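Lay summary. Proteins are chains of building blocks that fold into shapes, and those shapes determine what they do. In this project we predict the shape from the chain. Here is one chain we studied, written as its sequence of building blocks.
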Amino acid sequence: MYCHRVVRTMNFTIIDGSYGEGGGQIVRTSVSLSAVTMRPVRIINIRSGRSNPGLRRQHIAGVELIARVVDAEVSGLEVGSTRLEFIPCSRHGGTFSYDIGTAGSISLVLQAVFPALALCPEPSELTLTGGTDVAWSPPIDYMVHVFGHTIRHLGVTVDTKVIRRGHYPRGGGTVRCRVWPTESIHPVHFDGFGNLQSIYGLSHCVRLPRHVAVRQAQAAAEVLQGTLSCPVQIETESYDRKSDPHLGPGSGIVLWAESGSGMRIGSDSLGTRGKPAEQVGREAATSLLSELSTGLAVDSHLCDMLVPYVAMASGVSRIGITRVTSHLKTNLWVTSRFLDADLSLEGSTGTPGLLTVRGVGLSVKE
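And here is the predicted shape, written in a compact code that computers can read:
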């Protein structure tokens, strides 16, 4: 199918893939917003400043899945390509399955596809295979307990279940998600975090001795209980090594703090070969304390993920950010190329900030 109607009536939005960090995030966000707005996009200079420029397999996965959601015509979708054209035709929900391959991040693919599914006319179900806990991406437990919890405030309901974990390099993890669309995205006022009520967490290990998950949890709890006067509850997840269904070893911990107003701030740390379990737990706990110390509502990992939603929302949103990141600035730039939202960021990279967004009011009927 070729979407002649779209090509005739709409111009391509041109995105320079070398902007800012010049990474794969630009590709994911651009294609995601193309699917949201139904505007064709042409991305040039993809990862041109990297030692291995162009698209990698993990970038292609997200584009292919979003293309199914909007029946898109795509050109340039191959490993090493520095130019991509994406032409959306018709947005719809449904049931989708996709194998990212090896340990490609499931979380990053979900980030890219969720905004379009939120405005579909019917619910959707996803089954993704790949990496659930891999470097340089949010762990799947963070997506469940922090991201998924937060976007409910914006009117988007996502139910994500981890069927099997997948770690680098073999992957093989499986995640199932169900997305219920909303008539429109709600604006939010996430200024201050509020009064800290409790801290929760999940420490896991697979194809490793059970004590690894326990030691990660104990080390994190010791740091937190020695600093904060609030309940700390960290669950552990491990398996009998003889019947463990996972393809390779791995471990990690995700923590989240919850306020009396229902806000959540998260942190995480991933186990690697030669890294003591105690160090993994302490890293996650120290990071959480740093995020909480600002008193602001949204952590540095979540802020860039929320940008497309508040730009789509009907009204003004205010978000207090624990630390401004380059990812946030990049997502703001890409979003401004697709949506005529009023985006205002106070604060410089590495410092706390305040994001104010007047959304454009997209709806499921768009």
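What the prediction tells us: The longest strand covers residues 196-206.
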